[in-house]
Amino acid sequence: MVAVIHTSSRFRAVMQYNEKKLEQGHAECISAINYPKDADALSFDQKLNRIQRQLALNKRTKVNTVHVSLNFDPSEKLSKEQLTEISKAYLKGIGFEKQPALVYEHRDAGHPHVHIVTTNIKADGSRISLHNLGKNQSEKTRKEIEIDFGLVKAQDRKAQEFNLKPVSIKAEYGKSETKKAIANVLDKVLNEYKFTTMGELNAALNHYNVAADIGSEGSRIRKNNGILYRVLDKDGNRIGVPIKASDFHFKPTHRNLKVRFLYNEMNPNRTKDSLRVKNSIDFTLYRKQNVSLPRLINILQKDGIDTVIRKNEEGKLYGITYLDHRTKCVFNGSALGKQYSAKGITERCIEDPFSLQQQKSQKMGLDVGQVAGAGNVYHVGNGSSLENDKSLDSLLSPVKDGEYTPHQLKKPKRKKQKGFSIGF
Question: pTM for this structure?
């Protein structure tokens, strides 16, 4: 079993992501822990209000939402009851057993997994520390659950589902069945990388010799919002028979990808992750007058950042995308700012002498140039049960502004100091 923890301040966005999966038939809410009603008897607003009332107890804590995914080996067939018990055991192990939590079983990937949505704000308004939660409590609990429930151990599993580091799973036409090869790449990229556009998605897929084709302007594919997935050869050319998105059981369709784009765009860590890419570029180019684009690409590669460039038939750079394998984030250059766009980078880098000589000898265009290159986590505390609630139903009603703020958390009012004057 592999546990991946994300924390944020966007509880509603996390809820909408899981509920959207439910509406599409790709997920089911199988348990509502520390809720006054069973999961199947709760409306969306009731699920939302229960935890929002607890968030209102502490408005000083910004990071108040915990989103955990528990991932199991593809060979394991686990019932809803087993998944619920495993989720409860996990929450207890990390100190969240008394926190309200919703458990969603997702069916949009090639392996069984559940998403747990909860909060680190306790019933008394205090917060559970999230520092090193994944490294300490989560890792210890994961190993205990593997033994108690007889699960496949993550450290013994060599399959790529449990390898969260970049590995070579490139699709090679003729060496493996096309659909299976593409499915392996999609499973890794869609579940690990954070992209917000089709261009950013393709930058990650191209790294593993796969492309998502949405068709040209006016084509039937584009009109029907379809997607064809293709294998690429070593030169980036499309080969083999394309596979429709709807042919994969986890449905990586245009509509479903839009939900993923939105979710990734709202990720609170995206701004921080973008700073790593920008700082790496700025540090390389700072006060240096001799850095060409190929040299910049090579230096970024050593820092775990792939640079995907796009050139027209005349060889002029018109697009650039950065693929950060450490944070698993993908950024279009213009999204980072003008100085990181294709034009900005061209102005900041010197002309490559070899490239100039090559352009003179032969006129060539490059569609995509790539260079090879190389979570978040957190913590514990004690919660509180529903014992002291005067009305269980009140937990499912909307929270009002200013309601349920513990006295000890309210800021004391400052007393006005009386002034005095001196008369003559």
Answer: 0.47
